[in-house]
Amino acid sequence: MRGRDLAGERFGKLTVLEKTEGRSQGYVLWRCRCDCGQEVLVNTKKLVQGSVKDCGCTPSENARRGRVAEDLTGQVFGGLTVLRQAESRKGRARWVCRCQCGRETTVNAHELKAGKTKSCGCKSHIRRGLDLSGKKFGRLMALYPVDKRDHKGSVYWRCQCDCGQELDVSGDSLVQGACRSCGCLKREVQQEIQNRLHRGDGTCLERIESQSQRRDNTSGFRGVYKLKGGRYRAGIGFKRQRFYIGSFESFQEAVQARLQAEALIYDGYVRAYREWQDRAGEDGRWAKENPLIFEVKREDGIFKVRTNMTGGRERNGREDIAEGHSSDVC
Fold it and tell me: Distance between CA 10 and CA 136 in Å, rounded?
């Protein structure tokens, strides 16, 4: 291969015209003319081995080569203006481009057309080509660029939120939708979620009703944990308190004790709240004078529930007490 004169030889659709002074990967670069009329520079190794057989204009049987090459001369992609075609590499058409900063760089055609490469690396397209003035992004209106950039080189824009607040946001965050308000939108969404939840007597009804769906411990059943000695510990939470139910020889015993506690506490609370809610909807004054009471205590291995609502029947404001035993308590 070394010293071989390829002038006049044909490789695929390429006819070698002349040897140049250039080198690529240690091999001589040859000026070749493709059957389509385009001229490209290809090194000796790629010609002889047949890895390059055209200028990139031929549809490839390999999906990696993509579609038929088109003439991109003069087209602008971000901050790059295409000047001329360069030597193909790995069967892909490549183009010499001039960046807005003045430097020349060689880029694959598919990277240009897909928008993956928009500069030589100087990020001039971000500094000079992105005008967001007057554009709206969610609740934010971009007013003017400021003299600040993020770690990627994206310009920060002074923005005004619909609520009247002003803040600086990077152009990338605006365009990509990562920032849509000054923070008021998030607060409103959180408040809306809170408003959707039914809260009474210091706890959340939806959370209580969803307890039966939880499986977040090592035993596989809510509130039941396996101890090192082989026994099983059961517990239950209510109103930010954790109550100990007991320690049991078998998993089934622990699960049964947990279910009994849920029936007394969780199911009891849901019934009491629904009853109170129905009555409150009929008489707002009564609701203010009779807030829901549902308190749980554990004394001497017994759960005691104190509430002013029982079984869906009003008890004239009396506070009734229900009791539940926990078995095999240590």
Answer: 58
